[in-house]
Amino acid sequence: MTDAREFRNALGRFATGVAIVTTRTADGEPWGVTVNSFSSVSLEPRLVLWSLAKKSYSLEAFKKAGSFVIHVLASDQEDVSNRFARGADGKFVGISCTDGLEGSPVLPGCAAVFQCRNALQYEGGDHVIFIGEVHHFDTSDRESLLFYKGGYARAANALTDLAELIRSEYVAAT
User: Fold this and answer.
1) Could you tell me how far CA 54 lies from the centroid of its own chain?
2) What residue segments make up the domains of the chain, in order of their start?
3) What is d(CA 174, CA 160) in angstroms, rounded to the nearest whole number?
């Protein structure tokens, strides 16, 4: 069996989007975290999922939340991703949010936004999997921010890497 770092590196070969999930705590405090574990589950009913590590400081806020908002970040929002990826306070300082479903904060400038009711939660190894029922969504024409091979990427970067891989395999085979 390979070690955890090799497994993580192998998973990193799958380009994912970068998202921020927000909610409000029972005290009304805005809460948010960066994730790359967002996926669709069902078109009817509209269900999406995301997961959060059990050791995350944010876990209890999301387990108790009645709703959350998933923000698919635009390609120019690396700084926002980095801000919400750290555990420090002040993540919402200087960001003009609006209130979404049940008051969950909605961040501006995203590629897509999904406002969800917290429908189901499942234990999944060292993570909790959250399934949200989408009650409202918005999209824009903005290019999405990607995470690929341990760092941020844009769709053009990922396609260039893929083309180079195909070219090198073709050259090696001929």
Assistant:
1) 16
2) 19-144
3) 21
CB count, 10 Å around CB of 117?
15
* 157 residue type, one letter: N
Measuring CA to CA, how many Å separate 52 from each of 38, 48, 125, 151? 10, 14, 11, 19
Q: Which CATH architecture has domain 19-144?
A: Roll (2.30)
What's the pLDDT tens digit per position in 91-112? Answer: 999 999 999 978 999 999 999 9
**pLDDT single digits (tens) 10-61:** 888 888 899 999 999 989 999 999 998 999 999 999 999 999 999 999 999 9
Phi, psi torsion values for 170, nearest 5 degrees: -65, -45
**Model confidence, pTM:** 0.85
